[in-house]
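Tokens as discussed.
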């Protein structure tokens, strides 16, 4: 009677099964160890199957949140160079120098930097020629 009330109060299938096994074992006077061991194995198997089912469902559930978190960042990284080139294409006045002018300006900057450092390429070449050869 107490086991039946316990099973009704908790209202879970596992508790009802254990209460039924204990009630029948008490009524019949049989050994409970084998029945309880089998029931425990069944509970473990069921719990393991439920855990596997939940683990298999997790990637599906995480797909959409991850997509909404990472997709904007990936799109910004991948599309920003194209947008920058398109803006340069449609607004050429923002970049007044042509490619040849940019090349000459950059080579002039190199020459000016070398002159500022007092490292004339001809002077460096002459200095290496005037050194005595190492013996």
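Sequence:
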């Amino acid at each position: 009677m107490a086991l039946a009330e316990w099973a009704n109060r908790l209202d879970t299938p596992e508790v009802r099964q254990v209460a039924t096994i204990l009630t029948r074992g008490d009524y019949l006077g049989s050994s409970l160890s084998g029945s309880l061991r089998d029931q425990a194995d069944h509970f473990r198997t069921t719990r393991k199957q439920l855990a596997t089912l939940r683990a298999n469902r997790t990637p599906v559930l995480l797909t959409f949140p991850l997509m909404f978190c990472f997709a904007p960042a990936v799109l910004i990284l991948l599309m920003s160079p194209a947008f920058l080139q398109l803006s340069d294409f449609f607004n050429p006045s923002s970049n007044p120098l042509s490619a040849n002018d940019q090349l000459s300006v950059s080579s002039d900057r190199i020459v000016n930097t070398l002159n500022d450092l007092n490292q004339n390429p001809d002077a460096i070449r002459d200095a290496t020629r005037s050194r005595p050869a190492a013996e």
